[in-house]
């Protein structure tokens, strides 16, 4: 089962994707990550290896996480500084 979800990119992920936000149809975080890596290319794919994700405000690195219809997924690369 797939769901329309909103993807929001931050910092280096935003620069690599070339967009701030987009909508995707994906049932799991793994499916979503695969789609955005394919769509935006190698630069984003490299950034994604270090990213964590917020799904509706809850942090997860579990790529088998099921995405509910209307979920908001924030793509968060490691941030420099303190």
Query: What's the main sheet like?
Result: 5 strands, mixed
The succession of helices and strands, N to C, reads EHEHHEEE
Average pLDDT works out at 92
- Gross geometry: globular
Helix content: 25-40%
Strand order of the largest sheet: 2-1-5-3-4
- Strand content is 25-35%
List low-confidence stretches: none
Number of β-strand runs: 5
Distance between the termini: 40 Å
What does this structure look like?
This protein has 82 residues and is of the alpha+beta class. The protein is built from three helices and five strands; from the N terminus they run βαβααβββ. The protein has a five-stranded mixed beta sheet. It starts with a strand and ends in a 6-residue tail after the last strand. The model has no long low-confidence stretch (mean pLDDT 92).
Topology diagram in text:
Blueprint: E1 3-9, H1 11-17, E2 21-26, H2 29-40, H3 42-48, E3 52-55, E4 58-60, E5 72-76
Parallel strand pairs: 1-5
Antiparallel strand pairs: 1-2, 3-4, 3-5
Helix pairs in contact: 1-3, 2-3
Name its key features.
single chain; 82 residues; alpha+beta; five-stranded mixed β-sheet; 5 strands
Write a compact overview of the structure shown.
The chain is an alpha+beta fold. The protein has helices spanning 11-17, 29-40, 42-48, and strands spanning 3-9, 21-26, 52-55, 58-60, 72-76.
């Amino acid at each position: 089962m797939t769901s329309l979800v909103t993807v929001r990119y931050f910092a280096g992920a935003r620069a690599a994707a070339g967009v701030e936000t987009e909508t995707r149809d994906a049932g799991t975080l793994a499916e979503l990550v695969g789609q955005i890596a394919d769509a935006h290319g190698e630069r984003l794919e490299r950034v994604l290896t270090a990213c964590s994700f917020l799904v509706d405000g809850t942090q997860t690195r579990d790529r088998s996480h099921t995405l509910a219809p209307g979920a908001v997924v924030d793509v968060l690369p490691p941030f420099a500084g303190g």
